[in-house]
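STRUCTURE:
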């Protein structure tokens, strides 16, 4: 069975009510002006209700988006802090395993809050960090060591780029342009 929005339900209810009034008024001898006036009031109330519904839904979505943005920004900051810890421990062979486990546990709880590129780069970084000591100790493939370390380092740029905000100077310049355009 199809579901109807509250706006559609209100509109149908208003039309049924107007039709019922029209039939009743026809039998009771009510003037056409009164019927038109009532129909206008019903249509106006329906439109006002629809507008109120749309506005409240928009406000609700804005509140949700703001909360989600705050959570996502916080997740990127936490991931960046863990990445810094990962970088500082990558050559501490007896400690890197614990840091990688900390990163993986955090990732399991928070990865969906990260932007896709940052999410992938963070996972590559902690997985690469765990294997890095083996590649360094092997010494037969220095290009693999460089490529692996580049995968670790790349997460920092990906995390920072995901939450890049315009500078205050840029925002002020944009505001001045808008004010200048409105004055013209």
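SEQUENCE:
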């Amino acid at each position: 069975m199809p579901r109807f929005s509250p706006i559609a339900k209100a509109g149908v209810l208003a039309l049924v009510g107007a039709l019922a009034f029209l039939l009743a008024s026809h039998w009771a001898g009510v003037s056409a002006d009164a019927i038109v006036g009532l129909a206008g009031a019903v249509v106006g109330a329906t439109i006002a209700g629809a507008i109120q519904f749309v506005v409240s839904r928009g406000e609700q979505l804005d509140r949700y988006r703001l909360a989600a943005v705050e959570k996502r920004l916080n997740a990127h900051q936490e991931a960046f802090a863990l990445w810094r810890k990962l970088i500082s421990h990558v050559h501490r062979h007896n400690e890197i395993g614990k840091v990688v486990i900390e990163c993986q546990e955090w990732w399991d709880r928070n990865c969906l809050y990260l932007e896709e590129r940052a999410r992938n780069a963070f996972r590559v970084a902690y997985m690469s960090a765990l294997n890095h000591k083996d590649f360094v100790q092997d010494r037969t493939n220095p290009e693999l060591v460089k490529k692996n370390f580049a995968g670790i380092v790349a997460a920092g740029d990906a995390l920072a780029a995901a939450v890049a905000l315009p500078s205050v100077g840029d925002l002020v310049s944009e505001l001045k342009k808008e004010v200048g355009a409105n004055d013209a």
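REMARK: The radius of gyration is 31 Å.
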